Amino acid sequence: MSFSLRPALKDVLVLLAIAAFSAGVGGGLFMGLPFLRTMETWLMDFRVATLLPPEPQHPDIIVVGITEDTLAQFPYRSPVDRAFVADLIHTLEEKGARAILLDVLLDQSTEPEKDAALKRVLEETRIPLVVSYGGADEGLTEKQQAYLNDFVPLRLRGFANLQKDGFDGVARWIFRGKNLPDGTFLPGVAASMVARLDYPAPQLGDNFDLAYRGRPDSATTPFKQYASHLVKVLPAKWFKDKIVLVGADLSDRDRHATPFRAVSSGKEGIQPGVVIHAHSIAQLLDGRSAPGRSMGIALVTLGIAGLLGMLLGRVEIALWIRGLLGIALMGVLWIGGFALFRYSGQMIPLMSPTVALGLGIWMTDIYTGRKERDQRKFIQQAFSKYLSPALLDEIVKDPSKLSLDPKRREMSFIFTDVAGFTTISESMEAAQLADVMNRYLDGVVKVVFSHGGTVDKFIGDAVFAIFNAPKDQDDHAVQAARCGLAIDAFSEAFLAGEVAAGRNFGMTRIGVHTGSASIGNFGAAERFEYTALGDAVNTAARLEGMNKYFGTRVALSGANARLCQGIAMRPIGRVVLKGKTEPIEVFEPLAGDEDGFAARYCAAYALMDAGDAAALAAFDALIAERPGDGPSGLHAKRLAQGDISSIIVMTDK
């Protein structure tokens, strides 16, 4: 029984469970309810959009945009003029650019001469150059893929994908790359650019958080940005040793939602893909970490919220005061969450802990309001599988009769075990084994309950039962012995039925002992159980095992047998258990002795106990009368070997 009924401990466990459940539900609702997830995500984006610390424009990255004014110079808007692109790359190289990212998809032909000029520039450019790439997953046809593969050398390619949140379409992660159809891994443009610059290859996971860069002020962008058609006339020093990203800056294409959309639906909230790539490359070059969204910290926040809600619900104060305190705690949570992000960059959830806090208050209030009714229901449910129905009814009526505080008392114990169970189980299908064992254990449990015993545990096929706990049982020794005989009768009938049905099963061996042991809750802080511990328990278990040596099915200790005057039995021997020095008497209980065999056995045993040499002949006669009698065969063998004594020293357990 892995719980305690002591009121204080029970309350603590239940209230902690309420806190944990509230935290779990709060976190689960974040994933399960679209409205709650929308609010939680918006709150995270709002913090990014409003609380990122100001930063100077990145000193090494420039964005060169292909703007509407750029396209106005050409006779057609799309594809962008290839000669212009070729000349732009050549100009940037001449002006001393350190590297170039061309975020333009070169997937179709235009004018042959211009195409040839651009292809030649791509092949001949001496500075690091990365060109955007895509495949069928990005919407390209087979013809477009073939053209792109021929036009852009493999060494220059990088996937231009932006990894977005499938829930709201916001670009939140850096795309690490993916395998090409031939199995070659091709990184995203950000990782590819960093690698071309001889930086250590970034270790990007499937969801590597993107750390957006803060702006210097409300009027300045995080990166210097120039229109591409002006590059020729701009000073060379502006581009010297810079990483230049070239891409579309148009109102009708390649624009994507960012966390800044939480406060602006304009240019800042919906940014060109090339600018988002600039944020990614800056993060990888600078070794920046994204705002912390640690799962561990989120779980701790949820746990604290659930715990505070439980504690507030537990306080005996007026409902309106509890409500005000709950609102105050929520305010502290939200203010603290905003401050934590602003000053440490750590992002914690706010909506889900708010739900956990409110749920903890509500559930605790319900629990404390119906405590007495829950106590009765708890007892009935908890012990229905351990105690007999009659005993359970009595405890439910008066729970004070049931004390689980560990204490030492005299009890009787039964251990059962099915011979050869391991071999039997290996020969059965799982479903058949479950059916057989469920029927067998159900029968044994019913026998234990009918004698007022408590089933402590199942250990595979074995059953451990206790008598005289948790409730007093004056005749526990007699009931345990009778229970052992009844289990034996049931098990023999069960075995016969299984054999008749063509199923393999083994006989049941049973050990019964009466002695003093400690009973109560034992275990670790995380898990404990109601059980008995002590040498008396071990003795009962070893008696069960000794049946195999004696050739019996049921073995009673002398301590039990002396209290069972009304039960027929015969002595087996005085056994010195391994590791012990004093022998214990062992008896076999009998259903009856109609033919007087047990009496003749007892007479032979008395001769052996007295050291009389005539004992061997007496046991030989018993074997001739009943060849399968285990105790007679055991003693005849011992006597023949010169062991003329009723003391049996066990060499193993």
Give the tally of structural domains. 4
Mean pLDDT across residues: 85
Largest sheet: 9 strands, mixed
Number of strands: 22
Rg result: 41 Å
Structural class: alpha/beta
Keywords:
Alpha-Beta Plaits; alpha/beta; 9-stranded mixed beta sheet; 6-stranded parallel beta sheet; 653 residues
Task: Describe what this molecule looks like in 3D.
The protein has 653 residues and is an alpha/beta fold. The chain has four domains: 7-32 and 292-371; 54-286, no CATH class; 408-591, Alpha-Beta Plaits, CATH 3.30.70.1230; 593-653. The protein contains 21 helices and 22 strands. Strands 14, 15, 16, 17, 18, 19, 20, 21 and 22 form a nine-stranded mixed beta sheet that branches. Strand 3, helix 6 and strand 4 form a beta-alpha-beta unit. Helix 7 (189-196) crosses helix 8. It starts with 6 loop residues before the first helix and ends with a strand.
In short:
This protein is of the alpha/beta class. 46% of the residues lie in helices and 18% in strands.
Topology:
Blueprint: H1 7-32, H2 34-51, E1 61-66, H3 68-71, H4 82-94, E2 99-103, H5 112-124, E3 129-133, H6 142-151, E4 157-159, E5 163-164, E6 171-174, E7 177-179, E8 185-187, H7 189-196, E9 208-209, E10 224-227, E11 243-248, E12 255-257, E13 270-272, H8 273-286, H9 295-314, H10 319-344, H11 351-369, H12 371-383, H13 389-397, E14 407-418, H14 421-426, H15 430-450, E15 454-459, E16 462-467, H16 476-500, E17 508-523, E18 528-533, H17 535-550, E19 554-557, H18 558-561, E20 569-576, E21 584-589, H19 597-609, H20 615-625, H21 630-640, E22 647-649
Helix pairs in contact: 1-2, 1-9, 1-11, 4-5, 7-8, 9-10, 9-11, 10-11, 12-13, 15-16, 19-20, 20-21
